[in-house]
What we know:
single chain; 824 residues; mainly alpha; two-stranded antiparallel ribbon; two-stranded antiparallel sheet; 26 helices; 1% strand; elongated
Amino acid sequence: METNTPNVAGFYAEENKDNIYETVLGEIKYLELPLGITLGSVYDDQPNAHQKFMEKLDACIRNHDREIEKMCNFHHQGFVDAITELLKVRADAEKLKVQVTDTNRRLQDAGKEVIAQTEEIIQCRLQQRNITTVVEKLQMCLPVLEMYSKLKEQMNVKRYYSALKTMDQLENICFPRVSQYRFCQIMIENLPKLREEIKEISMSDLKDFLESIRKHSDKIGEIAMKQAQQQKIFNAALQKQNNLSYGRSMYISNDGLPEPRNEMFLKQNLEEEEEHEDEVLTAHDLVDFSPVYRCLHIYSVLSDAETFENYYRKQRRKQARLVLQPQSNMHETVEGYRRYFSQIVGFFVVEDHILHVTQGLITRAYTDELWNMALSKIIAVLRTHSSYCTDPDLVLELKNLIVVFADTLQGYGFPVNRLFDLLFEIRDQYNETLLKKWAVLFRDIFEADNYSPIPVSNEEEYKIVISKFPFQDPELDKQCFPKKLPMSQSVPQIYIQVKEFIYASLKFSESLHRSSTEIDDMLRKSTNLLLTRTLSSCLQNLIKKPHIGLTELVQIIINTTHLEQACKYLEDFITNITNISQETVHTARLYGLSTFKDARHAAEGEIYTKLNQKIDEFIQLADYDWTMTEPDGRASGYLMDLINFLRSTFQVFTHLPNNNNDHAAMSGKVAQTACMSACQHLSTSLMQMLLDNDLKQISMGAIQQFNLDVIQCELFASSEPVPGFQGETLQLAFIDLRQLLDLFMVWDWSTYLADYGQPSSKYLRVNPSTALALLEKVHKGMKDLSKKNNIFAQFRKNDRDKQKLIETVVRQLRGLVNGMSQHP
């Protein structure tokens, strides 16, 4: 049993291996998988596995060979029978072939004539079909050729818009039918060239149009401004007629029926307009706008309208800049301004026409933008050039042109408020030119005036004067002719010129669309400028002129007084013009009162100055012998001449206006002030003469002679050269000199030194420094005189005592002066 067990195991092992090989062979025969894994299972670790597999494979091959051999033996008899039958049919096939060939030959011979006739029929039908095709194609092409010929004709006669329509028909309708033909391709290639040619030609026409409107813009603007001005005049006249009451405006017509006069006036104007309707020209009459329409339509058809619009706007912007550029000498004449405004109006009238007759070429936003740009440039140009104008008439004409210019463009829908604002600036410039012009007029009037009262010999001459100037004087009216009016000839002339200035200023305020209150305010402000600046300056310059003497200054004071009184009449004059009451809250007042008061004060001051200058001229004629031992016994000649001059001068002041208490008080005050000023200046000049540093010594004889002159001055002051002084007020002007001279004449030094500083001092007005300066000069003079008279005079006891006294007084005076400097 133990011996058989291994054999059984080996048997099972061998059987398993055979199964494995069978499986491998089955996979090789029937599967398409990769054989690497399958063959790998054969080559395992068992010895002789390859050899055994090959043996198994050979056995499998032998089995298949036996099966193939069996199959062939089974079908061999059938194959042999089929070959035998095929050999029998071969002979019959040969016979059939011979018969078919013979039949075919006989059939070919019989069909040759039929074939020939058939080919002729086929050829004829082909020709017939070709002819039909050609006719059809020609009928298809002829409209295209005719339309293309029509296109050429339209190009020749410059009907470009129709030509473009024809091109569209060719492209959209005709060419698609004949696009396969060469001539169609040539036409198709020519159409873009024709379109470009049309664009170039239409653009050339547009350039000619732009050049044309550039040349005619000033004429267009001139006509538009004239029409606007005529319309404004017509509306103003119509409004004036409508303001009349119905009862006072009835008119009897030709049929005997009353009708309102304003309706009659309106009918007359309408009839006149109808008569002249054919004569009214517009922008369309002067310029042919068809190139614009044609070019716009052409570019629209070509789907290139945007290019045309951009080009047109660009070119018009360039033209606008050229139009807005003024000539350098435009400000010299009104024609320069008129041409400038006409060109601008013509430009915008054309743009407005284009805006309303075309669709989309320009827009309102575009014209508004262009106008705003132009308006800024216009304002800058006018502001610059108007500043060069020095003629008020030219500025006024410029204002009228600006108003017509603004009204014209406003009628076309352009905002012009900034232009009216500019007019207020130009109004200031106009007022400046008026002020300069009137300054010349005032200067001429002042130069021509004789500065003497106006003589009137009869009632007629008197009425002529008071018709020019509002003068009223009841006292003078009572006097008999001939008589004199207190003012000089310049007063009524100045008054007339002020009224003329108001009229001239009013002219600028017309047509500015301002209320009466604003016009009243403008008139009053400009008149105030005339009075407070121009007239005031002319008066001040007149007063300062060297050839104006005291008599002329007195007359100027009189003139300014009457001009001051006339200011209320000027206010009434403005009120009558504007119908604005002076009681209105916002009504300005004229400042003439202050102007003439200032001029009068300046004249008074000039009187004082000229008097003092004249006194200085007389003082310069003084020729004192400061070393004389004895006085001449009479006053100096220069001083007597000076006093006589002062007496005659103060008599002039009696001509100052005194027709009422105020004027009497004023004239007295001026005369008194002038007299006091002259005396004070004379006293000061005489004091300075004594204290002159160049004068080193003075004798007592010269002091006595000087005292005689001062006495004459005091006599003049006490003679009341000008009435109105109280007591010895005028003599007080010489009190300093009098006390100083008395001190030296009496030689009362003990009293002076003892009472110095006391309110009741006899020499209260004598200053120690003044006394010291004069005493030193007298002391030196006495020394020199003693030396000349006697060389031994210094040994005389009296002289020595006097010199010691003088030296003592000098030391005491110096002490007083030093005390004053330490305790000011």
